[in-house]
Amino acid sequence: YWVRMNRAQDATQRAHALRKQKGLPAPPVLDLAAALRCLIAGDLGGWARAGQRILLPEAVGSDPGLAAAVVLGQAGVLLARGQADQARTMLHEVGRTIPPTLAVQRDVMLADTETARGRPQAALRRLRGYEASDFATLAAMPRARAHLALKDLRSAQDCVRSVLATPSPQTGRFTVVEALLCGARIAQLDEDPGRALE
Predict the structure, then answer these.
(1) Cα dist. 85→76, 118, 139, 148 in Å?
(2) What single DSSP character describes residue 190?
């Protein structure tokens, strides 16, 4: 869903068709995918409804990766609502033994909570290890937000440029739009309304 919404929707429909053909209940990860789609679309109510279906103890407890993904989704909703302290508490409860991509996502969200709490330097320290890694694109926009909080427009622009200029399988429409909006904000702060409007 982060990268290719149409392909994800097609895969979801095929999964539901196969599930119905075999007479199986919806697997928790399919409900998680539906919840993630709602979160990306900004439908927090839809996330809450989809999330209720996957918060069954037997579903979450059987798969630590799924449990971590559910917590990350819940924390994402809290961040979207401006509840950074609650999100931070929830993110610290996620275990250390989770898949690498989820670990990066957790660190990215923790960095955003640090920026939201007025601690952008702490956010940048948390993300420092990702700058030259395979996950640099995932960490670029939280780094840009931290640099903006420090009024470091050049570094923020470098982060935006890295998202827009570096081909990466992790750069989906959501990230590109986020980078464009951040670039417009940088231009506005740099008193360049023409570039911001463009």
Answers:
(1) 12, 12, 20, 20
(2) T
Record the tokens describing residue 66, joined without a space: 């799924």
Through-space distance between the first and last CA atoms of the chain, rounded to whole angstroms: 27
- Tell me the residue type at 104: V
pLDDT score of 61: 52
Torsion angle in degrees (nearest 10) through CA of 155, 179, 114, 121:
0
Out of 48-62, 88-102, 167-181, least confident range: 48-62
Smallest CA-to-CA distance from 69 within 41, 39, 42, 49 is with 39
Q: Which two tokens stand for residue 181?
A: 């909006």
Q: How many Cβ atoms from other residues are within 10 Å of residue 179's Cβ?
A: 22
